[in-house]
Amino acid sequence: MTIQSVQTKSGQGLGMEVQNVGANRQLAAYTALVGAAAFIIGAVLWSTAGADIDLSVTNGEMVDYLTTAAANKPVLVANLSFWILGALILGVAGTTMANFSKRRVWAQAALVSYRTAVPLVIVSYVAMLSVVVQIAPDTSATAVSLAEVVGWIGSRADWLATILMIGVGPLFLSLAGQGDWAPKWLVRLGYGTGVCGLLTAVAMYANALGTYGFVIIPVGLIWMIAAGVVLRRSV
Questions:
Q1: CA proximity to 158, closest of 32, 37, 39, 74
Q2: What is the enclosing helix (H) or strand (E) of 138?
Q3: What is the 3-state secondary structure (H, E, C) of 179-205?
Q4: How many Cβ atoms sit within 10 Å of the Cβ of residue 163?
Q5: What are the Cα distances from residue 52, in Å, to 64, 123, 189?
Q6: SS3 of 178, please?
Q7: Rounded to whole angstroms, how far apart are CA atoms 62 and 85?
Q8: Does the structure show a pLDDT above 60 at 190?
Q9: 128 near 53, Cβ under 8 Å?
Q10: Structural contact between residues 157 and 123, judged by C-beta atoms closer than 8 angstroms
Q11: φ, ψ at 178 (rounded to 5°)
Q12: How far apart are CA 158 and CA 122, in angstroms?
């Protein structure tokens, strides 16, 4: 094998590697943007339904929730379906970003976060769907007790997964991509999502998910959208 042929193959290998990195960044960019959009659409549907299972569980208002959920069943089913879709797509975005990030310790931490968050949040949304589809509009004592237990599990699993997916997940991804694809301002925003994740964890114990515990949602989705734009421009 001549030196020239070795150089040619080396150049081809380097070109393919660059091409693969570009394709992975493009995949991460589009899935981050589409996943965030799916969650925003789901949130709009949720707000129009006027049924908040978190507050109902916390305030002991499950009877009202079951009545409202029954009257808005198609909207809530669509809402939770969009959130399931969004979780799957953001899972692809998060794991893809971790896979091409160079700081491997933080990348592995991000992978653990997303691989834990995606199945956890899907189960939580299915639990919420079971309350809407299988229990509502029954407001008997047995139905209410069952809905309170299933709703509590769904709500807490959802928030735990949220902390992992758009709280500490973006923080780990920011640190994994620091000095490579993640600019300093995105890393700072990643620290912000980590702080919001901590606040949400505190809010779960303080029954404050409807106040400061909710801040993680806009901040985390803004990070995802920002990361998608950054990666799209870097391709």
A1: 39
A2: none
A3: CCCECHHHHHHHHHHHHHHHHHHHHHH
A4: 25
A5: 10, 18, 28
A6: strand
A7: 26
A8: yes
A9: yes
A10: yes
A11: -60, 130
A12: 8
Per-residue DSSP letter, 52? -
What tens digit of pLDDT does each residue of 92-105 get? 999 999 999 999 99
Task: Tell whether pTM > 0.85.
Answer: yes
Residue 13 clears pLDDT 90, i.e. is over it: no
What whole-number distance in Å separates Cα of residue 159 and Cα of residue 117? 10
Measured CA distances, 198 to 134, 191, 194, 202 (Å)? 34, 11, 6, 6
The domain ranges of the chain are: 23-234
CB 65, CB 51: distance < 8 Å: yes
d(Cα 194, Cα 103) in Å, to the nearest integer?
18
Question: CB atoms < 10 A from the CB of 81, how many?
Answer: 15
Furthest C-alpha separation in the chain: 83
Which of 94, 99, 89 shows the shortest CA–CA distance to 170? 94
- Asked whether 98 and 108 are in contact (CB, 8 A), the reply is yes
Map tokens 């968050």 to a residue: 117
Q: Which of 147, 127, 130 is nearest to 63 (CA)?
A: 147
Q: Contact 136/73 with Cβ under 8 angstroms?
A: yes
Amino acid at 215: V
d(CA 51, CA 66): 8
The values of phi and psi at residue 48, to 5°, are -75, -25
Integer Cα distance of 190 and 193 in angstroms = 5
